[in-house]
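Hi X.,

You mentioned you wanted examples for the new student's onboarding notes, showing what a folding record looks like when two proteins sit in one file. Here is a clean example. The first protein comes first, with its sequence line followed by its structure tokens.
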Amino acid sequence: MREPPTIAWAMLLGGSATATAAIALDRLHALVVVALLVLTHFIGYQAVDATPAVVVGHLNSLVSSAVMTYAFRWYLLRQGRLLDEANARALAAEAHKARYAERLEHHRALHDTVLATLTTLAAGTVDANAPEVRQRCAREAAYLRRLIQQTAEETPHREIGAALEEAVGSVESLGLRVTAQYHALPQVPPEAAAALGHAVREALNNVRRHAGTGHAYLTATADPDGGGGAVVTVVDRGPGFDPARCEPGLGLRGSVHGRMTEAGGRATVDTAPGEGVRVELRWPG
């Protein structure tokens, strides 16, 4: 009964024990447990007169099992920390992107509303005491108050028609005459309707500021190609311009092209000297 095989089955459990200790315990306690298991196995094999090769082999397996398990544990924990840090950086980047997008939207809104109104009043082209001008100023003052309080949230229009009519009313209060025609307007997501309304308002502001005609034409219809899309055009009969020689301004880049792109649509500008300007908005792009 003093042969090594008589206790080998018990000694084999030592490898699992050292691996469990390396996972479940901190470093100091794991070292103590491994040391005790090594000592126990050494005494056991001495009791059965095991050869040095058997003793050294089994003790080496105990220590190796603990070391490899600890190394795997350290690696997995390290990868987990790296993943957590990457997730934290991604969340921070998304939060920064969201704040930037919010600031950009506020800048666009200020450009399209308050700045447009102040520019028109400063030019003296409208009567500042006219009821429609005073109403527009009151709406924009309320928007500024909400913006200062960081609660400026414009509820997206649920209908294209409502968004376009608000845009038309906004520029008509500053003296631009708009001939609008709507036909079979489709149902689109609120974000798309709001983007179309904002883009139209800025296109009409550009007509009022630059075309020199005082009259614009707005048409809106379902996309003739089908698919539930919408096509909106703003046309003026002003002097036009050469696109190759004129850089688009902030309003055209951000409030028209930028808004349509973000909503999944697109905007195109067709113009030439002496031929007026045609702005086409399509959703989806």
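Then the second protein repeats the pattern, sequence line and then tokens:
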Amino acid sequence: MLKLPKALLSLFALGSLALHAPAQADEPVVTLKLAHFLPAHSVTQADFLKPWTEKVTEESNGRIQFQFYPSMQLGGTPPQLVDQVRDGVADIVWTLPGYTSGRFPLTAAFELPFMSRSSEASSQAMWDFLEKHGQKEFADMHLLATHLTDGALVHTTDKPIKKMADFRGLKLRAANRTATKTISLLGATPVAMPVPQVPEALSKGVVDGAVLPWDVVPALKLHELVKYHTETAPGMPALMHTALVVAMNKNTYENLPDDLKKVIDNNSGRALSREAGRIWDNQVVETGHKLAESRGNEIYVLSPEEQAKWMKATSRVSEGWIEEVEDKGYENGEALLEDARQLIEHYNAQLPR
């Protein structure tokens, strides 16, 4: 890790904005701490966040710089990232709100089973939906982007999942409460854990498999730990998606000079969300397939008829979401869910055919 001078460390202790000696007194250089839970070589940092930071640095004429802290190098655990950005431990985080159970119920709409076919479309839909309905959920931070991973699939060690009956007796890693409910309804036993714990859990037999998108396969070397991968039917919705956000400390953002705020604004929002979704729809799926095939793993694709059975079995998860958001004070959860679905279809219709 880069060793920082004592003076700079003192500034970090006083606040999360680090001001370096500027070329001119009225043009300070701001260094932002950007934290996430995956390794530096992951698609998250190498292909999404790093190009974004380079663009922001260039458009700010070097006045916005970034220091990456991958793999939880600022301490804590992945579920604590939302509090780290809220409290100023980090200036910006890329994180999974679903790790913090129940705190982001509206965001969880986009993680419901069989909700989405395209990350690019649904990432934009999620941005619009949270702008419209989710201000309370993110009142204590400044959202820069919302996006979905590629669709989650089932990775298993000893036997393939080809029909619902194959879930019986298996313990499968789950990311959040939605995944836990979905896995239970399909017939397996869910075991909730953050992504970094998955390799050890698989190698020690704590779980028999994991419900994960292709995007984490290279970082976790998951293709070396499992033998089978089950995908949903072509043209049909994915089993589920994981919702992620790029969020900034609110005070950090508000204390930026207006011209630097404009640089951040011009490079965030729906456009950044769409770019993230595009990366996860295409690049990470292709990479995951190549790695699995290089190990001789089997990739099984569900038939539409079998997938229809899975969709029917998990329909209660959406009903439970409606009840949950209404219990938390939101009016008409059914209308909220319908709005999310309509936004998804709106952006699906804009995709190239």
